[in-house]
Design a protein that fits this description.
about 80 residues, mainly alpha
Length: about 80
Amino acid sequence: MALKVLAFLAGEDEALGRFLNLSGIHPQDLRERVSDPLLLAAVLDFLLADDPLLTAFAQGEGIDPKVVHQARRALPGPAPEA
């Protein structure tokens, strides 16, 4: 799920830029850490913190936003509340 979110963010320049700025991750680091569970958790946390972005992603994927919350709970660290 987090990889799908990354692909979605790649098509949303403003959102991807905000994620990179907020997380302090450089684009090269993002490519190198794409399988890091902590990075993937951060990607989902970013999406879950932005309701319009979450809604757009969920609609594009044809899923309920709750699925993203479920995916987040499977990764390390405290998950944002639904």
